[in-house]
Amino acid sequence: MGRRRTVSAGEPLIWEDDDSLLVANVIEGVLKLTTSTADGREQIVGVAYPSDFIGRPFGQTSAASVVALTDARVCVFARNDFDRFAREHPELEHKLLERTLAELDRTRAWMMLLGRKSAPEKIATFLLDMSERLADNGCVHQPGAQSGPARQFTLPFSRQQVADLLGLTIETVSRQFTKLKADGVVALPGRRDVEILNRGALMALAG
Amino acid sequence: MGRRRTVSAGEPLIWEDDDSLLVANVIEGVLKLTTSTADGREQIVGVAYPSDFIGRPFGQTSAASVVALTDARVCVFARNDFDRFAREHPELEHKLLERTLAELDRTRAWMMLLGRKSAPEKIATFLLDMSERLADNGCVHQPGAQSGPARQFTLPFSRQQVADLLGLTIETVSRQFTKLKADGVVALPGRRDVEILNRGALMALAG
DNA sequence: CGAACCCTTGAATCCTTTCAAATGGTGTGG
DNA sequence: CCACACCATTTGAAAGGATTCAAGGGTTCG
After folding, report:
1. Shared domain check, B24 and B9
2. pLDDT at A142 over 80
3. Same domain (yes/no): B66, B159
4. Which of A92, A98, A101, A107 is CA-nearest to residue B100?
């Protein structure tokens, strides 16, 4: 019933305010969910990792655009078909409900960050969050036994995308990264590579 | 199975990070969902109106506190009982799923506001949002036939709560209200009363 | 090798916050 | 019924943090 599809980095899968025609499961890769204002400001409102569900079932339009951050593979379904199928399979709806509730919790925690945290706090919170999210998905560069938070990882985001996630400008993000490096809290081996040198300091900064 | 309960204005119903012991339906009144930082900053992450569902089913802890903004009546259920009951009634789970998806959409739209909008834009967006939300709930002071957005209404929030909703300080909120009044966009008959004089201007300001 | 792009850095500006004080409305008690 | 105290809100001035505008590296890819 579902159709496999690849989406290359930067390519859109769903457009904001479009008719909600399809839903999908992420098999591999990372995608961003965004909303935009008329004048082009963008806010990333969610990030989808492997096994995450994307799209808007039971609704006419989707409230966010979905764009691949990395090359990705997804399993897409026509929304109509999915809706019908879901209503006939309570187990599936229950799974979806649990996921949606968890996503809502995450989203609300992010609202705290957007509304009340300073730039340094946002960056620190972001790095700790990535360190945990990426550890669960084999995106980590450090093949370790247990899957605690990753000490070293590669961000699936450009600086601009980090800014769009945190509600900052690219310049502020860059400056905060530079400061954390200068203070010896993190190392930045590559543009998108992060190594946490002092997790305690980062947690203290996260507010 | 559910027990009716009244919650007076300012009284908490659920504590952040507490074990999720109960869920509830709002019968009457308005409640806020909040998260806080260790140092006391607060962010309102949701507002529950009559017929809204609150609490965290299928989870061990609730991510937000719930506090009544006005005197309220709710119908509470033990989470355990509710979880069991829901799993046996797919129709209920479906309803809950639809509501949760809608709430997630609203929450994501609010992230745009928190992350990317200026203070004037936040206030304008807020007033338009209230004008629509309150119209649906008989909270309106203007007994009209059709239920379009309300022209006049009473906020269920203090200035500080508006600030906590928009990610601003109370002083900034006050100044923006004053400016809107001075510009003739709104009238402020009472502390919590708003009358929209120029909806078009408000929409232009909302960004 | 050059061009394009992304990221970093610098300086000035602006918006929001912070700190402080005044105002106004409310409720109480004399 | 009026005086007073209390609390929310408003207003002012100063400070600060993030943005804006501008320029300068550094990578990557044709």
Report:
1. yes
2. no
3. no
4. A101
Low-confidence ranges of chain B (pLDDT < 50): 141, 144
Read off the pLDDT of residues B132-176 as tens digits, 9 standing for 90 and up.
998 865 555 455 456 689 999 999 999 999 999 999 999 999 999
Q: What is the pLDDT of residues A74-99, one digit of tens each?
A: 999 999 999 999 999 999 999 999 99
Q: What is the mean pLDDT of residues A88-115?
A: 97
Classified as helix, coil or strand, A2 is coil
Whether residue A99 is found in the same domain as residue A169: no
Residue B181 phi/psi, 5-degree rounding, is -65, -45
pLDDT band at A18 (very low <50, low <70, confident <90, very high): confident
Whether the CB of A169 is below 8 Å from some CB of chain B: the reply is no
In the prediction, which pLDDT does A138 show?
53
Does one domain contain both A189 and A148?
yes
Show the tokens assigned to A169.
């400008």
Q: What's the structural domain count of chain B?
A: 2
Last residue of a domain, one of B83, B111, B139: B111
Q: Which residue among A111, A144, A165 closes a domain?
A: A111
Say whether both B14 and B69 belong to one domain: yes
Tally of CB atoms within 10 A around B49: 17
CB contact B107 to A (< 8 Å)? yes
Q: How far is the CA of B150 from the C1' of C29 (A)?
A: 41
- Does residue A102 carry a pLDDT above 70? yes
- What SS3 class is residue B183? coil
The chain-wide mean pLDDT, for chain B, equals: 93
User: Cβ contacts (< 8 Å) between A93 and chain B: which residues?
Assistant: 90, 93-94, 97
| CA A8 distance to own-chain centroid | 16
In a shared domain, residues B17 and B105 = yes
Q: Which of B95, B104, B129, B98 is nearest to B202 (CA)?
A: B129
* DSSP 8-state symbol, A24: E
Domain region containing A193: 118-205
Task: Examine the domain organization and report whether B22 and B85 are in the same domain.
Answer: yes
Residues 117-136 of A with CB under 8 A from B: 117
CATH number at residue A153: 1.10.10.10
